[in-house]
């Protein structure tokens, strides 16, 4: 997608965003470098929630609670269980969820997503959103995809990571290169994973949409 097309579509949505109070958090996120989900990617996810009549969501990576509340806002009766390990983020998320009155629709699980099975394994989910440390996406998929109902969705954000995944040679930092390699490996693993069907969208930072076989 060209920069012009992207800007055109983002601006086209502006009229809706003006009535969307959760959108106020985008300004905070940008000022504090919190990597919340990009606008067109979010619209795609909200549309999938409507299409699939999603009611229960498991999210790995809450940050300030922006995406959790956006998902819960699609319609009444949606419940989001979301996991976050960073104490500062947990604090912000709690404040935001309370401020926007989503306490009844969102359960915030505090701690590392690979250690909080106790709070996550007690139910099944219509949708899993993997949006935490990018090098760990495979681990979280293996851990939590079994909890997704047959026919349910597993969405992975940032599968193109800043355009580096398709063009790793431009990456200078050793750490970033390591991480990008893991994202490449994850994408290659995911696309041919048995029992699941995945397509990759090149909107913004890239979104993988996986449907679990029935
Ligand atoms: N989903 C949010 C953005 C999440 S940013 C939104 O779109 O609004 C990624 C978050 O994942 C960060 O806040 C980071 O602290 C958290 N995170 C990274 N690894 C984690 C882990 N292993 N367990 C729990 N949270 C993790
Ligand atoms: Mg993301």
UniProtKB/TrEMBL annotation:
<dbReference type="GO" id="GO:0030488">
    <property type="term" value="P:tRNA methylation"/>
</dbReference>
<feature type="binding site">
    <location>
        <position position="158"/>
    </location>
    <ligand>
        <name>Mg(2+)</name>
    </ligand>
</feature>
<dbReference type="Pfam" id="PF01596">
    <property type="entry name" value="Methyltransf_3"/>
</dbReference>
<keyword id="KW-0489">Methyltransferase</keyword>
<dbReference type="InterPro" id="IPR002935">
    <property type="entry name" value="SAM_O-MeTrfase"/>
</dbReference>
<feature type="binding site">
    <location>
        <begin position="112"/>
        <end position="113"/>
    </location>
    <ligand>
        <name>S-adenosyl-L-methionine</name>
    </ligand>
</feature>
<feature type="binding site">
    <location>
        <position position="157"/>
    </location>
    <ligand>
        <name>Mg(2+)</name>
    </ligand>
</feature>
<feature type="binding site">
    <location>
        <position position="37"/>
    </location>
    <ligand>
        <name>S-adenosyl-L-methionine</name>
    </ligand>
</feature>
<keyword id="KW-0479">Metal-binding</keyword>
<protein>
    <recommendedName>
        <fullName>tRNA 5-hydroxyuridine methyltransferase</fullName>
        <ecNumber>2.1.1.-</ecNumber>
    </recommendedName>
</protein>
<dbReference type="GO" id="GO:0008171">
    <property type="term" value="F:O-methyltransferase activity"/>
</dbReference>
<feature type="binding site">
    <location>
        <position position="131"/>
    </location>
    <ligand>
        <name>Mg(2+)</name>
    </ligand>
</feature>
<keyword id="KW-0460">Magnesium</keyword>
<feature type="binding site">
    <location>
        <position position="131"/>
    </location>
    <ligand>
        <name>S-adenosyl-L-methionine</name>
    </ligand>
</feature>
<keyword id="KW-0819">tRNA processing</keyword>
<comment type="subunit">
    <text>Homodimer.</text>
</comment>
<feature type="binding site">
    <location>
        <position position="84"/>
    </location>
    <ligand>
        <name>S-adenosyl-L-methionine</name>
    </ligand>
</feature>
<feature type="binding site">
    <location>
        <position position="67"/>
    </location>
    <ligand>
        <name>S-adenosyl-L-methionine</name>
    </ligand>
</feature>
<keyword id="KW-0808">Transferase</keyword>
<dbReference type="InterPro" id="IPR029063">
    <property type="entry name" value="SAM-dependent_MTases_sf"/>
</dbReference>
<comment type="similarity">
    <text>Belongs to the class I-like SAM-binding methyltransferase superfamily. Cation-dependent O-methyltransferase family.</text>
</comment>
<dbReference type="GO" id="GO:0000287">
    <property type="term" value="F:magnesium ion binding"/>
</dbReference>
<dbReference type="GO" id="GO:0016300">
    <property type="term" value="F:tRNA (uridine) methyltransferase activity"/>
</dbReference>
<keyword id="KW-0949">S-adenosyl-L-methionine</keyword>
<comment type="function">
    <text>Catalyzes the methylation of 5-hydroxyuridine (ho5U) to form 5-methoxyuridine (mo5U) at position 34 in tRNAs.</text>
</comment>
<dbReference type="InterPro" id="IPR043675">
    <property type="entry name" value="TrmR_methyltr"/>
</dbReference>
């Amino acid at each position: 997608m060209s920069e012009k097309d992207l800007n055109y579509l983002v601006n086209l949505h502006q009229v809706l965003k003006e009535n969307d109070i959760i959108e106020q958090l985008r300004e905070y996120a940008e000022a504090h470098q919190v990597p919340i989900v990009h606008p067109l990617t979010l619209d795609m996810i909200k549309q999938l929630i409507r299409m699939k009549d999603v009611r229960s969501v498991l999210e790995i990576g809450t940050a300030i609670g922006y995406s959790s509340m956006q998902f819960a806002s699609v319609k009444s009766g949606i419940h989001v269980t979301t996991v976050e390990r960073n104490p500062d983020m947990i604090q912000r998320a709690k404040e935001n969820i309370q401020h926007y009155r989503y306490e009844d629709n969102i359960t915030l699980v505090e701690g590392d997503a690979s250690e909080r099975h106790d709070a996550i394994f007690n139910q099944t989910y219509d949708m899993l959103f993997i949006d935490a440390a990018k090098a760990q996406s495979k681990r979280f998929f293996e851990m939590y995809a079994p909890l997704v109902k047959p026919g349910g969705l597993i969405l992975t954000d940032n599968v193109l990571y800043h355009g580096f995944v398709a063009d790793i040679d431009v990456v200078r930092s050793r750490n970033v290169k390591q991480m990008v390699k893991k994202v490449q490996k994850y994408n290659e693993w995911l696309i041919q994973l048995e029992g699941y069907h995945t397509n990759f969208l090149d909107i913004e930072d890239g979104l993988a949409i996986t449907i679990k076989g029935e």
